[in-house]
Amino acid sequence: QKEVEQDPGPLSVPEGAIVSLNCTYSNSAFQYFMWYRQYSRKGPELLMYTYSSGNKEDGRFTAQVDKSSKYISLFIRDSQPSDSATYLCAMDHTGGFKTIFGAGTRLFVKA
Amino acid sequence: GAGVSQSPSNKVTEKGKDVELRCDPISGHTALYWYRQSLGQGLEFLIYFQGNSAPDKSGLPSDRFSAERTGGSVSTLTIQRTQQEDSAVYLCASSLERSFFGTEAFFGQGTRLTVV
User: Fold this and answer.
1) Straight-line distance from the first to the last Cα atom of chain B, in angstroms, rounded to the nearest whole number
2) Which end of chain B is more exposed for a tag (fewer CB within 10 A), N or C?
3) Measured between alpha carbons, how far is A111 from B3 in angstroms, rounded to an integer?
């Protein structure tokens, strides 16, 4: 079993929809949770990060962490075609470099 | 340039040949990471360099893989006797701090390696 599970999709939604992207994990020691966005043929870029449980909002993006369920989510409101990308969740327990990544979910937002 | 630069962008090689992949990190970044991204597998940690400290090579999948970082800047990932399962995108990232968290790690565009 992988430490981090993420549905690879693809997920296709119409422009303006609310998108929900999720990851589950097995290591209860994980404390730091991140979301990366990766456009085609580009390297991943950090989108949001959170520590422990709770929510964090940044513009149209909201990250949620539920440590009791070992479940994290990224919500995108008013999705735009420019949001079409692969979204990778990532996490680690030391704040260190061996961050564990999910497989990534491919998102398509149709105009 | 201002970002992490990797070369070549694409590399096709024959099985059994050696390849070298290059990473130029952002100037002043002391931490440098190599990851491998295979289809549907997410990012797999390979190796980490921090300043002049000994690198953490715990993620290298076999002794055919090696990496060095010269002068605390440019890094080269070498794969000897390439196998078809080595085909993947190899990503390099650098950051100012040791940790990813709270300190953004910048990724290069990757080298797409195809072993035929």
Assistant:
1) 32
2) N
3) 31
Q: What pLDDT, on the 0 to 100 scale, is given for residue A52? A: 81
Mean pLDDT for each 10-residue chunk of chain B (116 residues)?
A: 90 98 93 88 86 88 95 93 97 78 80 97
Q: Is A83 helix (H, G, I), strand (E, B) or coil?
A: helix
Tens of pLDDT along A35-79?
999 998 889 999 998 888 889 999 999 999 999 999 999 999 999
Decide: A43 and B5 in contact? Cβ < 8 Å.
no
Q: Where are the beta strands (DSSP E) in A2-79?
A: 4-5, 11-14, 19-25, 32-38, 45-51, 54-58, 61-66, 71-76
Tell me the chain A residues in contact with residue B56 when contact means C-beta distances shorter than 8 Å.
97
Pick from B104, B80, B88, B77: nearest CA to B7:
B77
Q: Name the pairing type of β-strands A32-38 and A85-92.
A: antiparallel
> What is residue B1's DSSP assignment?
-
* A7 → chain B, closest CA residue: B40
Question: Pairing mode, if any, of strands B75-79 and B19-24?
Answer: antiparallel
Q: Among A2, A6, A88, A97, which would you mutate to test the B interface (most chain B Cβ atoms within 10 Å of its Cβ)?
A: A97
Buried b (16+ CB within 10 A) or exposed e, A22-42: bbbbeeeebbbbbbbbbeeee
Looking at the complex, report in whole angstroms how far the Cα of residue A46 sits from the nearest Cα belonging to chain B.
Answer: 7
Considering only residues 33 to 52 of chain B, which have any Cβ-Cβ distance to chain A shorter than 8 Å?
A: 33, 35, 40-45, 48, 50
- Determine the pLDDT at residue A17: 98
